[in-house]
Design goal:
This protein is 34% helix and 26% strand. A hairpin with a 2-residue loop joins strand 4 and strand 5. It is of the alpha/beta class. It contains seven helices and ten strands. The chain is globular and about 50 Å long.
């Protein structure tokens, strides 16, 4: 099976500052990959390069076999949430998603409604996004990322602003998407998110990506412990 993502020798400079240092990573389909690291470690920059928002200074990134920035500008079958989602705040959440869906021309209004329900938002709510709490905006951002049923999700701190119940709901949603064969790359400051969700974990430190090994048996125990709580 062809890898979902292939990153080979990627560096990224901002002037004299080397933010990514010879990063290489292969991601297989149907697995959840976690990246941990302090602010400024390079996690978000790497995610932006995968999505085509930034170009590597050197090296290559292929998503579903196509080189980002050469064969494709924005990878196909990709849902993404990086940093704070931007919406038209005077409109409702559903109207925002309907506008985005109309641009992509892949889904109907019924699928927008279904995505909102999956993340715990009422599609019939008349409240404008400017009245949303931080957690509601985060849920809307996740709905936007999943609504076109992408094969790959790139999620930078997807649990920001969510309360305990919200975190549990979104964790379950991500595990369901994984069971459906989706590939997920996520960054989180919360070790529990990473421990419960991820099949493989990498640590980013000063632009260097290092594989963190955890046994499959221990991973299974932790997941079952959380699901039973």
């Amino acid at each position: 099976m062809e890898p979902c993502i292939e990153i080979r020798g990627v560096t990224r400079r901002f002037g004299e500052d080397l933010v990514l240092k010879e990063v290489s990573l292969t991601m297989e389909t149907g697995r959840v990959y976690g990246i941990v690291g302090n602010n400024g470690s390079g996690k978000t920059v790497l995610m932006k390069c995968i999505c085509g928002f930034l170009m590597p200074t050197t090296g290559t990134i292929r998503v579903f076999g196509k080189q980002v920035g050469r064969e494709v500008d924005f990878p196909e079958e990709l849902g993404v949430i990086i940093e704070s989602p931007g919406f038209l705040t005077n409109l409702t959440g559903r109207k925002n998603l309907e506008i985005l869906a109309a641009l992509g021309k892949k889904i109907k209004k019924s699928e927008v409604r279904a995505a909102m329900k999956k993340v715990g938002l009422d599609p019939d709510m008349k409240k404008a996004v400017e009245k949303y709490s931080l957690g509601m905006r985060q849920r809307l951002g996740i709905a936007q990322a999943i609504m076109e049923d992408p094969k790959l999700l790139v999620l930078d701190e997807p649990f920001n602003g969510l309360d305990k119940n919200g975190v549990a709901e979104i964790r379950r949603l991500l595990l369901e998407l994984k069971e459906e064969g989706r590939t997920i790359l996520l960054a989180s400051h919360n070790e529990e998110d990473i421990r419960i969700l991820c099949d493989e974990v990498y640590e980013m430190d000063g632009g260097v990506l290092v594989h963190s090994v955890k046994s499959d048996s221990r991973k299974k125990e932790e997941k079952e412990e959380w699901e039973g709580s």
